[in-house]
Specification:
Number of strands: 0
Distance between the termini: 13 Å
Radius of gyration: 16 Å
Structural class: mainly alpha
Number of helices: 3
Length: 76
């Protein structure tokens, strides 16, 4: 998982597996819970993060603001 997405998921209250023998492995989201509120929070934060990143690119006068914003979401 992209470290930025994982960090945001933790910030929004998603629960992650540790070393449980019956689990998929440490660091994976435990999808057995009801994440309706957390997912809405995550979605709002992700949109805000995207808008802020894009606005910062525009302030810097970047001609590639859209590409640079999208690049923030992916590990190269």
């Amino acid at each position: 998982m992209n470290p930025k997405f994982k960090s945001l998921a933790k910030e929004c209250g998603f629960v992650f597996w540790t070393n449980e023998s019956h689990g998929p492995g440490p660091g994976k989201i435990d999808w057995s819970g009801d994440y309706e509120q957390e997912f809405e929070h995550y979605s709002r934060e992700l949109i805000l993060w995207t808008i802020t990143t894009y606005q910062n690119q525009l302030k810097e006068g970047s001609e590639r603001a859209v590409k640079n914003t999208l690049d923030q979401f992916f590990i190269k």
